[in-house]
From TrEMBL:
It comes from Escherichia coli. It is an enzyme of class 2 (transferase). Its EC number is 2.7.7.42. The lineage of its organism: Bacteria, Pseudomonadati, Pseudomonadota, Gammaproteobacteria, Enterobacterales. This is Glutamate-ammonia-ligase adenylyltransferase. Residues 91-201 form the Glutamate-ammonia ligase adenylyltransferase repeated domain. One of its GO terms (biological process) is regulation of glutamine family amino acid metabolic process. InterPro entries: GlnE (IPR023057), GlnE_rpt_dom (IPR005190), NT_sf (IPR043519). Gene3D superfamilies: 1.20.120.1510, Beta Polymerase, domain 2. GO terms for molecular function: [glutamate-ammonia-ligase] adenylyltransferase activity; ligase activity. GO terms for cellular component: cytosol. Keywords: Ligase, Nucleotidyltransferase, Transferase. SUPFAM superfamilies: Nucleotidyltransferase. The keyword DNA repair does not apply.
Amino acid sequence: MTLRPVLAHLSEDDRKQVLTLIADFRKELDKRTIGPRGRQVLDHLMPHLLSDVCAREDAAVTLSRITALLVGIVTRTTYLELLSEFPAALKHLISLCAASPMIASQLARYPLLLDELLDPNTLYQPTATDAYRDELRQYLLRVPEDDEEQQLEALRQFKQAQLLRIAAADIAGTLPVMKVSDHLTWLAEAMIDAVVQQAWVSNGCPLR
């Protein structure tokens, strides 16, 4: 694609930054082994991504956050396909990464969270404060109770998904600022209860 038209609204410095980011991203791709399907999906995804990102006033900052994420998932075709086949998910990714470096970093570290972008009804509506314990209990039922490693991984996944929803709702304004700390507290308490319960299962109840 020709970038010049979509970069016209940016200052000269910003245009240079965007072009440098794209060049650096291409160099990173050259260092990785990407299969034919991955290349095909990436070739379809990037024009749409660049068109949307470069139209923004904060194109350079947003692109730097998203390319850092893409470098981490570029060999994992499933995630590229998600962003390529679901334009709404791509738009959510762009807006959230633009709004928050924390979310961009979180998604880069835990790409499994990209699945959360598929459903805006849950992405921007965090769990009710009094339902975190039950939600976590139901989530852990998917994992064998005697598999401690999988139980811990499920706890991490649940925590990260809930943190993403809280942050997304805060950014979107669907969760009042005063309620954010309430949700973080209830989530933390649910996590502690679950960890204690797992410790009892593994080691037995403490003697009184």
